[in-house]
Amino acid sequence: MTKLIVNPEEIKEIFFDAILNGYARPSSEKKSIPHFPNSKVTRYRTDLWLVIDAWTTNPDTGHSFGSTCIYHKGTLPVWFMQYSGIYPKSLTWFLKEALKENYKNRRFTGGRGPFQFEPKDNPRLLYTNNVNCSGFIQFNGREDIKQNGILEGYHIYNGGLMIKP
Question: Which residues are CB-contacts of 135 (< 8 A; sequence separation ≥ 6)?
Fold first, then answer.
C-alpha cells in the first residue's frame, strides 16, 4: 500500500469549487437518489477529484441530514463533512446565502457559513456559526438561524481529513 500525499489546501479548493457549483447554486442539477426517498445529490468531478454531496429531508418536519465526501481519483475517500438538524423550507434560501458568503470568498469556517450573517434587506434574520474546532483537517460546530430573535433552525456538523496530512 502506497501512502497518498495530497496537500489539504488542494482538497479545500476542490471543496469550494464543488459546493459553489452544487448545493449553493440554484441552477445546479440536484438528482434524486434511487432507493433513498426525499434525497438529493450533486456530483462534481475533475481529472483527480470526485465530490459527492448528498442530503435527505423529511418534507413534513424539515429535519435533514447530509454528507459531503471528496474522493481522490474517484474512489479513495480523503475528506468528509456530515450534518444534521432542522430548517423550515421557507428559510433554506437564507441558509444557502449564508453558506455562499463563505464559499465564494473561499473562507473555511467549519465547512459552513460565516460566524455571523444578516441579509441586507431583512435584518430580522440572523445566521450564526458556533465553531468548536474550525480547521479543515478536523472541525465541528453548530449553525443556527433566528428570525426576530427566535430559533427557527439549526445544523450540527463535523468532519475532516480521512488521510494523514
Answer: 160
Query: d(Cα 5, Cα 31) in Å, to the nearest integer?
Result: 32
Region of residue 34 (left: phi > 0; alpha: psi -120 to 50; beta: else): beta
pLDDT in tens, 153-163: 999 999 999 99
Degrees to nearest 5, angle at CA 101 with 6 and 108: 30
Report pTM: 0.90
Burial class (CB in 10 A: 0-12, 13-18, 19+), 82: middle
Domain boundaries along the sequence of the chain? 8-161
Between the CA atoms of 92, 93, 98 and 103, what dihedral angle is there, to the nearest 10 degrees? 100
- List the alpha helices (DSSP H) in 21-161: 92-104
| Average pLDDT in the chain | 91
CA 62/CA 77 separation, integer angstroms: 29
Angle at alpha carbon of residue 44, lines to 129 and 61, rounded to 5°: 50
User: Taking CA 64 as the corner, what is the angle to CA 61 and CA 69, rounded to the nearest 5 degrees?
Assistant: 170
Q: Name beta bridge partners: 154.
A: 86, 144
